[in-house]
Amino acid sequence: MITFNNLSVGFGNHSVLKNISGHIAKAQLVALIGENGAGKSTLLHALAGHYDFKGEVRFNNYPLSTLSQAHLATQRAVMMQSNLVGFDFSVFELIAMGRYPYAESLKMQAEKVHKYAALMDLTQYLSRRVSKLSGGEQQRVHMARTLAQLDAFSTHTKPKLMLLDEPTSALDMRHQHALLSCVKAFVEQGNSAIIAIHDLNLASLYATEAILLHDQKVLDSGPINTVLTESNLQQMYAMKLHVNSHPYNNAPMVFSQRQEFS
Amino acid sequence: MNTLTLSRFKPVSITANQKWMLLITVCIFALALLSIGYGPAGWDWRLAIAWIAPEYFNQFDALQINVVTQIRLPRFVLAVLVGLVLAQTGAATQALCRNPLADPSIIGISAGAAMVAVAFIAFSAQFNFNAQYYLPYAAFLGALLVTSLVYLIAKQHRQVNITTLILVGVAINSLSFAVIGLLSYFADDSALRLINYWTMGSLGGANWDAITQATPLLLLSILGLWRLKEPMNLLLIGESQAQYLGVNTDKLKLYVIILVALGVGAVVALTGLIGFVGLVVPHIARLMVGPHLRKMLPLCMLLGVVVLLLSDWLARLVVMPAELPIGIITALLGAPLFIYLIIKTKRG
């Protein structure tokens, strides 16, 4: 699906990612885990083709630089963290922007918008201005736009890729699970998704794989239950924590300890 | 034969957008009657239509009809074109800068156009050629030159830094006005009058020749920006977002800059500096139908025509038979309204 080799990204003299490599296959839901500033967003932007980088990124076996933005827009969608909207669009208009890559009638566009708005529990908000919504509701609007861009739940032949930067950070528990189960269903159709996420237990419940970013490098990667180990996590966060398994499905669950202020 | 089914007649429902469009179109027609019908040479709304078939309007003499066709009509057409272009380039610049307070006059495009055009006028006297004829092209070159310069300085890491863009625009503005001031020392009397009329802005110089010369530039700008409204709309939610949705943003920004420079350059050549239209009109249009350019742009452009016609009519009315520079009227109408809008949005 997407492969990166010796990928380095820096801004001026400041290096963010150094010579990292990895491969994301079809039907994988990858959790991208790391501290603040570890380079999770930078990696997502680079994989999306936005930043200048050294090294190689191949998307469906083609070097990223050979693919046009217009083509990429139909194959991968990106939901970014700082989705500040300076102009006050309506929820409908913002979701409809996801359909820009396709030449389709406004009626068809409206059908898709309604379909993916319903999945994100937004049907009753469609005519509202985005600025009048709460942070979590806005996050769901951007997710609906991302789903609409790939037409995530329709039959398509080529596998597609979703890059999500902390999509659940402002959501309540119910909507966190609603969003991740939706991504999971998308991936199970043969697509892939990479999600930068801080909530390790949530990641553990839904992701199939994980990439741990630490100190400009990949600390560990692979199936999530082999990556979320006490030693990996203690090294990454430099604090004591415990990994246990979930009572119902054996997924690794991470417990931190109360710290004394010093 | 089929029976007539009444269900084919759906109830007519009018969206907010269509309601505003209708209202504004009615306003434009009313203002057309005022603009063409009223003036020092005759004060009768029927003058606005008499020129079409003078034989049916015996009350007007040939001179009056002539005034209408040679002075008022070109002035009306110019107001319409300038209104369309200023409103549209304002909206386009706001998309380019992703800032609802941006305007071609803010990032230095208008002042750059004026600077080169004034230099052109000042030196044309020395070299004895007719500056008026090439003025739109000189102003376009000035606009393009300044915009490219500003754009190149502001461009870093494959992206245009908006803060730098605006700051460089501010610097270019002051530089342009300094150069215009300096050049006016070297200008002769007639050139000085032209320069003076220009920095204030006026539609008084309208004639068919000038309009015909500038029309290709104006139409290119209007039609070009119109075609780009969908991708420009995506710029409003951020450049990287637009890229991820398939827009070639570097190319788009380049086109927008050239088309804005074309429109603004031609307008500055024809009328001088008319401020606030590109700033206030898109703002009002957004308050009516929201920021989506597919809905907002047509409304914004028609509203630009309304503002231009109204301001020009007032400019002619207030101190009749003399007239005020239209730039004064647009600033007097625009600035307080704009301040009100800012306060209202802040509270809302």
UniProtKB/TrEMBL annotation, chain B:
Nucleotidyltransferase recorded as keyword: no
Keyword Transferase among UniProt keywords: no
Keywords: Cell membrane, Membrane, Transmembrane, Transmembrane helix, Transport
Name assigned to this protein: Iron ABC transporter permease
Residues that span the membrane, as ranges: 20-38, 76-97, 106-127, 133-153, 165-187, 254-284, 296-318, 324-343
Family: Belongs to the binding-protein-dependent transport system permease family. FecCD subfamily.
Pfam families in the record: FecCD
Annotated source species: Pseudoalteromonas neustonica
Organism lineage: Bacteria, Pseudomonadati, Pseudomonadota, Gammaproteobacteria, Alteromonadales
Membrane topology annotation: Multi-pass membrane protein
InterPro entries named in the record: ABC_BtuC-like, ABC_transptr_permease_BtuC
Subcellular location: Cell membrane
